[in-house]
Amino acid sequence: MPTIHVTRRDGRQEAVEATSGQSLKDALKGAGIDEILGLCGGFASCGTCHVHVAEDWLARLEPVRENEAELLGYSDWREANSRLACQIPFTEALDGIVVTVAPED
Fold first, then answer.
1. What span, in angstroms and rounded, lies between the C-alpha atoms of 90 and 79?
2. If exposure means fewest CB atoms within 10 Å of the residue's CB, which of 41, 48, 69, 91 is most exposed?
3. Region entry Disordered: which residue ranges (predicted)?
4. How far apart are CA 8 and CA 45, in angstroms?
5. How would you write the pLDDT of the chain (105 residues) with one tens digit per residue?
């Protein structure tokens, strides 16, 4: 089964199994990564699923959409590799992706 490698806010690293066709947010939440809240239900309107994607994975992702970029602009923790996990469709091509949960705003 495809895997997501995630570093939690406290530094713990976990390998999470994911299903192709769900969002990265849903995969992380479903695996018990409780720092990923997704309060808006995945509509890119709350920012509670903010992650930092490892640099070598960024080119494999769909480009950041305007509403995602705008919302990330409000975060004190925005970096060049910031993404909202709800806006990343998980596919087999992302097997092994490495993300870190961003600090809470």
1. 21
2. 41
3. 1-20
4. 22
5. 899 999 999 999 999 999 999 999 999 999 999 999 999 999 999 999 999 999 999 999 999 999 999 999 999 999 999 999 999 999 999 999 999 999 998
